[in-house]
């Protein structure tokens, strides 16, 4: 797998299509909200809830969708733990740059992000590598 393919897979935890299959939709305006209600079969806004970022689902499906999301996240963490060291380093490096750790020298966000996935030593190894460049 190339670096770009690896990062594409890493950044694609679940797709928009998968969310739609779970009866999650999005609305950023009143018109979109009305369309979402029709799509979901809701007769009142009181029947809806959100995961944030404009997402909307039926309250009655919230627990089911949350379990699905948690399962997807568990699968993602298992996948990350299974990566060979070279690929782990690519993912860690990506997030260290994403959080501007090479500039701030603060790796706490990356350590939190990879809690129970990568060790502090894994992260520090890559951090030292990128700050020496």
Question: Any chance you could write out the topology, listing elements then pairs?
Answer:
Elements: H1 3-11, H2 16-21, E1 25-26, H3 30-40, E2 48-52, E3 55-58, H4 62-82, H5 85-98, H6 101-104, H7 108-113, H8 120-132
Shape: elongated
What helical percentage do the residues reach? 55-70%
How far the N terminus sits from the C terminus, by CA atoms, comes to 24 Å
The whole-angstrom Rg is 19 Å
* N to C succession of SSEs: HHEHEEHHHHH
Structural class: mainly alpha
The order of strands across the largest sheet is 1-3-2
- Total number of strands: 3
Strand residue percentage: 5-15%
Which features would summarize this protein structure in a list?
133 residues; mainly alpha; 2 domains; 3-stranded antiparallel sheet; 8 helices; elongated
How would you sum up this structure, described in words?
With 133 residues, the chain is mostly helical. It folds into two domains: 14-82, no CATH class; 84-133. It is built from eight helices and three strands. β2 and β3 form a beta hairpin. α1 (3-11) packs across α5 (85-98) and α5 crosses α8. The chain is elongated and about 60 Å long.
């Amino acid at each position: 797998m190339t670096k770009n393919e690896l990062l594409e897979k890493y950044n694609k935890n679940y797709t928009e299509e998968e969310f739609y299959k779970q009866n999650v939709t999005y609305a950023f305006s009143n018109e979109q909200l009305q369309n979402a209600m029709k799509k979901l079969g809701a007769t009142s806004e009181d029947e809806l809830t959100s995961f944030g970022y404009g997402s909307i689902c039926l309250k009655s499906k919230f627990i089911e969708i949350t379990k699905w999301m948690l399962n997807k996240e568990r699968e993602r963490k298992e996948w990350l733990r299974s990566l060979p060291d070279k690929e782990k380093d690519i993912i860690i490096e990506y997030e260290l740059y994403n959080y501007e750790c090479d500039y701030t020298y603060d790796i706490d966000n990356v350590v939190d992000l990879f809690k129970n996935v990568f060790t502090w030593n894994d992260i520090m190894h890559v951090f030292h590598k990128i700050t020496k460049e």
